[in-house]
Amino acid sequence: MTEGRIIKALSGFYYVKSGDDIFQCRGRGNFRKQNITPLVGDFVEFDSQNPDEGYILSIKKRRNMLIRPPVANIDQAIIVSSAAKPDFNPLLLDRFLVMIESKGIEPIILITKKDLKDESELASIYHYQRIYENIGYSVKLISALQSEESGGLKHELAGRVSVIAGQSGVGKSSLLNALNTSLKLKTDDISASLGRGKHTTRHVELVEVGGGLVADTPGFSTLDFDDIMLDELPDCFPEISERKADCKFRGCFHNKEPKCAVKQAVAEGEIAQSRYNHYLRFMNEIQSRKPRY
């Protein structure tokens, strides 16, 4: 029995890397009965007589997992936003951040296409950059991804498993192509009529980039909060989470409760009003969702 990591899933086969070798494996027959699906990124035990005939025997406990794209044991997510085409959207960025934080994945914010704005128009982008850096997030602002600037990201990838997230048209595929020229992911120009990009999703694979592994399929295809409970939401906002112990009432939701340290921090400008507004919006969304049985 050998240990390895699934780096690709395609047509019912799982490609497991162990050392410098890659083994083509199938899952055990009882996986389906037990409703177990191996994921790219899983650490597994497998048995293989040769590189083309192996069987995954067990899957080790996952640190985290995503459904779309289906990847497990992720270290960080590069959340790609754009300064223009489409315009920077802080609400959408915060949705991505909440999703990533809820999975215990470290986010890196990448704002692209700064060259499409003049300096006066970039003032708003710089404002938001300061907001997120003050929270503690790493924020990078670069020009078009075809430039060499994307190469500066490679040191962030070393020794880590990364996924790329962001709305359509911001340049996720272009980023991956710039980081690894062998990928040649399909990208299309922005659809002017729809204001969003087009992308053909392929199978999921972890590819080596900059000494780390990157999932070569941009996701997420959905941004609902179905898996986030109301009491978990404050912990998805680091600046709220670090102040919750100072609220008068335990279990404070930082909305209508008196003597709330979070609301005081907002009033004093220590928490950005935009972030707090988005927190309240997401809280209402979670409260309004239909119960699942």
Walk me through what this model shows.
The protein has 293 residues and is of the alpha/beta class. It has eight helices and 13 strands. It has a six-stranded mixed β-sheet with strand order 10-9-8-11-13-12, with helices on both faces. A five-stranded mixed β-barrel has the order 1-2-3-5-4. Strands 6-7 form a two-stranded antiparallel ribbon. Helix 2 (90-102) links the parallel strand 8 and strand 9 (106-112). The longest helix has 16 residues, at 273-288. It is globular.
What are the main properties of this structure?
293 residues, alpha/beta, Rossmann fold, Ribonucleotide Reductase Protein R1, domain 1, six-stranded mixed β-sheet, five-stranded mixed beta barrel, 24% helix, 25% strand, GTPase activity
Question: Short description, anyone?
Answer:
InterPro entries: G_CP_dom, NA-bd_OB-fold, P-loop_NTPase, Ribosome_biogen_GTPase_RsgA, RsgA_GTPase_dom, RsgA_N. The protein has helices at residues 29-33, 90-102, 123-135, 154-157, 172-179, 238-241, 261-267, 273-288; strands at residues 2-10, 13-18, 21-27, 43-50, 53-59, 65-66, 71-72, 76-82, 106-112, 138-141, 161-165, 206-209, 212-215. By secondary structure, it is of the alpha/beta class.
